Amino acid sequence: MTLRDLGWNDELKAAFAPYRAKGWVPARLIRETPINYGAFLEDGDEIDVILCGRLWHEAQCDADLPAVGDWVAVEPGNENQDHVIRAMLPRRTCFSRKMPGNSSEAQVIGANVDIVAVVTDAGPDFNLRRMERYFSLIGKSGAKALVLVNKSDLFTKEENKRAAEEISALWDEADVHITSAIKGEGLKVLKKYLKKGVTMCVVGSSGVGKSTLVNQLYGEEWQWTGEVNETTGKGRHTTTSRELVPLDSGGMLIDNPGMREIQMWTDEQTLRESFADVDALTHDCKFADCSHRKDTGCAIRAAVDKGELDAGRYESFLNLETEIAALRKRAKKRQMAVERWAKRNNRVKARNLADRIQLEKDERGDI
């Protein structure tokens, strides 16, 4: 395995040049644990690496820390010393969501990802509103969107086709395919995307067949899967850790734990690009500051009343807009708190310095 197989390119080579002179080596992170990382080196060797204190303290939030898929500069260790991450190379793309809970920070799902594959089905997991959220996050990341309507063997041809068509209608830039992980149908399509150096991030709810897809693409039981509950269609076991998996046939997968919560980590521009049809209607609203709720002359609500816009998509647009506004507000509060802490810290340092200078003067007997 070479660096090119892992996604190395001329831009990364140029960015790494200053670190090579220090004797450091490039590596790509494939696994993250609470205490260290797993990484691949140029010769395909896998090593455990730790993060240096400087990078930890310089990070303004967790999203600034190395994540699975990142390229880093590693100072090699030996039998008595750890391999240490000394620097991070610039990210080309970054797929992330808002950290679950009340946090205003981002959680990186995968760095330097070329394709984000969302796995769903035409049955219990089918949810257009959740898919809109995925498309907003993928659009922000810079990666290409791919959707797999999986478990086609459990539903009728008409149900699978209808689900695929409705998902395709949400975003023209997304590629949508019907697959069956159990029967192996549609996997040839996936392999067309997974070329040398291409990284694909696989996401979706628990039990939709992500691990089974990874197993078949990898050619062995990379992720253990158990039997499926006949009532819920959910697997008894799913991925529990995020990991980058190189494929013998070419390309790499980032398999992820099932996501119970898809909160927004994007901006207003990306939101409006994901809802271009809804955004186009805003120009026809009577008032420029229309909230699109109870305002007089709202073109969006008029389109819903006429049946020209799906009511669920309208509600999703409003909900996502509200989440983004709340996220921006929390981020601003956090920034203000950090600034206040920094000013207070500087005042304390200034007083301590003045006290130390005065003490030195007193000891010398200066007047």
SSE blueprint and pairings:
Elements: H1 10-20, E1 25-32, E2 37-40, E3 46-51, H2 53-58, E4 71-75, E5 83-88, E6 94-98, E7 106-111, E8 115-121, H3 128-141, E9 144-150, H4 157-168, E10 175-178, H5 187-193, E11 199-204, H6 210-218, E12 243-246, E13 252-255, H7 268-274, H8 276-282, H9 299-305, H10 311-364
Parallel strand pairs: 3-5, 8-9, 8-11, 9-10, 11-13
Antiparallel strand pairs: 1-2, 1-4, 2-3, 4-5, 6-7, 12-13
Helix pairs in contact: 3-7, 3-10
Structural class, by secondary structure, is alpha/beta
Mean pLDDT: 80
Largest sheet: 6 strands, mixed
Q: N-to-C SSE series? A: HEEEHEEEEEHEHEHEHEEHHHH
CATH architect. name of the largest domain = 3-Layer(aba) Sandwich
Estimated share of beta-strand residues: 15-25%
Strand order of the largest sheet: 10-9-8-11-13-12
What is the class of the largest domain in the CATH system?
Alpha Beta
Q: Quote the distance from N terminus to C terminus.
A: 72 Å
* Total beta strands: 13
Query: What is the count of structural domains?
Result: 3
Quickly count the helices: 10
**Rough shape?**
flat
The CATH topology label of the largest domain is Rossmann fold
User: Helical percent range?
Assistant: 25-40%
Low-confidence stretches: 100-104, 224-240, 258-265
Rg, Å, rounded: 25 Å
Characterise this structure.
With about 375 residues, the chain is of the alpha/beta class. It has 3 domains: about 80 residues, Nucleic acid-binding proteins (OB fold (Dihydrolipoamide Acetyltransferase, E2P), Beta Barrel), CATH 2.40.50.140; about 160 residues, P-loop containing nucleotide triphosphate hydrolases (Rossmann fold), CATH 3.40.50; about 90 residues, Probable gtpase engc, domain 3 (Ribonucleotide Reductase Protein R1, domain 1, Orthogonal Bundle), CATH 1.10.40.50. Helices cover about 35% and strands about 20% of the residues. It is built from 10 helices and 13 strands. It has a 6-stranded mixed sheet with strand order 10-9-8-11-13-12, with helices on both faces. Helix 3 links the parallel strand 8 and strand 9. The chain is flat. About 10% of the residues have low confidence.
